[in-house]
Amino acid sequence: MKNSLLDVVTAIDLSKTVIKNIKMNLFWAFFYNIIGIPVATGVFYPSFGIKLNPMIGAAAMSLSSVCVVTNALRLKKFKSKFENKKTENTYCQINKKKEVKNMKTITIEGMQCNHCKMTVEKALKSIDGVINADVNLENKKAIIEEEKEIDNDKIKKVIEEAGFTVKEIV
């Protein structure tokens, strides 16, 4: 999940689609078995002379399973109604009036988990003039968007107070 409430609506839509898919698969499985089992057991042989070779019956059962799985795999193509509307990050939509003057990339050492990442983000966002802070745990870097020029020493101090080491600010 992300920070958007639209993801809740997407999850509900996906669950409805899954239930619809399950019902469709059950319908076709029951329909197939209602017809196939009596034919395979020879119920219609005395009356109509219809019988089924066991190899054909086994192939038909396998084909039925393949159809059910293929139908279920259609769910991978599920797209949210809001997919195209989520082009910007929600935080930036709320703060559209604030103009981004500058962006800085900060290399930070000591981050090892998501808790560390969130701590650094919170610390950076607490600085007056920072519009947004995005921390990447894998790269050990943070990108901040500034509304006004912020002194690098101030940024370094805030991060070090949070318990991390600043290697570089670009």
Task: Kindly describe this structure.
With 170 residues, the chain is an alpha+beta fold. The chain has 2 domains: 6-77; 90-169, Alpha-Beta Plaits (2-Layer Sandwich), CATH 3.30.70.100. The chain has helices at residues 6-41, 45-48, 54-73, 90-94, 114-125, 152-161; strands spanning 102-109, 130-136, 141-146, 165-169. Strand 2 and strand 3 (141-146) form a beta hairpin. Helix 1 (6-41) runs antiparallel to helix 3 (54-73). The longest helix has 36 residues, at 6-41. Mean pLDDT is 84; it is low at 86-92.
Give a short synopsis of this structure:
The protein has 170 residues and is of the alpha+beta class. The chain folds into two domains: 6-77; 90-169, Alpha-Beta Plaits, CATH 3.30.70. It contains six helices and four strands, in the order H-H-H-H-E-H-E-E-H-E.
List the helices and strands and how they pair.
Layout (H helix, E strand, L loop, with lengths): L5 H36 L3 H4 L5 H20 L16 H5 L7 E8 L4 H12 L4 E7 L4 E6 L5 H10 L3 E5 L1
Helix pairs in contact: 1-3
What fraction strand?
15-25%
| Overall mean confidence score, pLDDT | 84
Q: What are the secondary-structure elements, in order, as H or E?
A: HHHHEHEEHE
Quick one: overall form? rod-shaped
Using only CA atoms, what is the Rg?
29 Å
Number of strands: 4
Q: Which structural class do you get from the secondary structure elements?
A: alpha+beta
CATH topology of the largest domain: Alpha-Beta Plaits
Task: Describe the strand arrangement of the main beta sheet, using strand numbers.
Answer: 2-3-1-4
**Count of the separate structural domains:** 2
